[in-house]
Specification:
Layout lengths: L1 E5 L4 E5 L5 E2 L8 E2 L14 E2 L14 E6 L5 H18 L2 H23 L4 E8 L9 H6 E10 L2 E11 L17 E2 L2 E2 H10 L11 H15 L7 E4 L3 H10 L4 E2 L2 E6 L2 E6 L8 E5 L7 H4 L10 E4 H25 L4
Parallel strand pairs: 9-12
Antiparallel strand pairs: 1-2, 1-4, 3-5, 6-7, 7-8, 8-9, 10-11, 12-17, 13-17, 14-15, 15-16
Helix pairs in contact: 1-2, 5-8
């Protein structure tokens, strides 16, 4: 027998325990009590950590990174996007190849806007299977599962996500890459990529339902790291498929009711239904100082757009991760050989 004390509850117990004991009231870990013999003891038995009723969900192999775009690493991302576009253009056809070309164009446009406005903040949000080195390498290129740019400015309460695309390497069989072995960009060749994929075959399988998670992660990190005015909306002019996904997953806190009017160098943007509490008006003076608002977000253009509230989008990251874990566990129970 021995004495144990829970410091938060200030209670002392006398018990013989074989495993790490926990306080029955606060479930905090108790510690051995070495003081004078107490005049009274708590009669409620100590408890121990309960084993989970269900097996723990499988942990996703994907991690997320939020990489600040700099003059030093912008060429890495340009070379990566260029090589992935080459691969997609040579191996895919029809709607698929068109989608890749347009998505990579949006990604490249954001890199160009970064060079035009050094005072803007630009990041690359990445879903990755492992580390990404600063210098182009086949392993870094292979590790990237999905990426997109995130752009904002300290003077603007809006951010935009542009150029989201999944690695085409996960959508083809490794032998098919032999057809484009000679393609290269930034010192990385498809031949180098083939060698990495053959060495670690687990990198050849895509991770499902990833795009909205990446958008949510990017919103969460942008709120944490952006400077200046608080960011209220993420507004983007996505491709039709991405717009469909965002409308489905973010319908409770998004709108396509976006109207902008340009008067000289001033851009006035209204977001939301008229005469509702969630109606917002944004006035940006000297619009020429923020080319990404028109070139990427297309605020003064006719492309279909969506505005998503930043706070709910950021909060969705934790919930989507939890749901993914449960779905993975359920699938593993249904298909033990998975």
């Amino acid at each position: 027998m021995g004495f144990y004390q829970c410091l938060p509850c200030v209670k002392i117990f006398e018990e013989n325990v074989a495993s790490v004991p926990l306080c029955p009231f606060c479930r905090g870990q108790v510690i051995p009590y070495t003081g004078p013999t107490p005049s009274s003891l708590c009669i409620t038995p100590l408890t121990t950590q309960l084993a989970p009723i269900l097996p723990l969900p499988e942990v996703s192999p994907i991690s997320f990174k939020f990489i600040s775009l700099t003059a030093e690493n912008v060429d890495f991302w340009r070379n990566y996007a260029t090589l992935m576009r080459f691969i997609a253009s040579n191996l895919f056809s029809g709607v698929t190849v068109y989608g890749y070309q347009q998505a990579v164009k949006g990604f490249m446009d954001a890199l160009d806007c970064f060079k035009k406005t050094p005072s803007s903040q630009v990041w690359v949000a990445v879903a990755t299977f492992g580390s990404i080195k600063s210098n182009p390498s086949a392993r870094s290129f292979v590790n990237i599962e999905m990426c997109m740019t995130v752009t904002t400015h300290p003077d603007v309460p809006i951010t935009t996500h542009m150029g989201i695309f999944r690695s085409p390497l996960r959508l083809v069989k490794t032998p098919e890459l032999e057809k484009v072995r000679g393609l290269h960009a930034g010192g990385v060749s498809v031949g180098d990529i083939i060698a990495v994929l053959e060495k670690k075959r687990s990198l050849a399988h895509p991770v499902r339902r990833l795009s909205t998670q990446l958008h949510a992660f990017a919103a969460k990190r942008c709120l944490q790291e952006s400077r200046g005015l608080a960011k209220i909306f993420m507004i983007t002019a996505p491709l039709a498929k991405m717009l469909e996904i965002l409308n489905k997953d973010c319908s409770a806190y998004s709108t396509e009711k976006i109207k902008s009017e340009k008067a000289g160098s001033t851009l006035v943007t209204l977001v939301g239904e008229a005469q509702t509490p969630k109606r917002h008006q944004f006035v940006v003076n000297n619009i020429q100082n923020y080319p990404w608002l028109t070139e990427l977000t297309d605020l003064n253009g006719s492309r279909p757009k969506i505005a998503i509230e930043m706070q709910p989008l950021a909060s969705a990251m934790d919930e989507s991760t939890r749901v993914e874990s449960v779905l993975d566990w359920l699938e593993s129970r249904h298909n033990p050989a998975r």
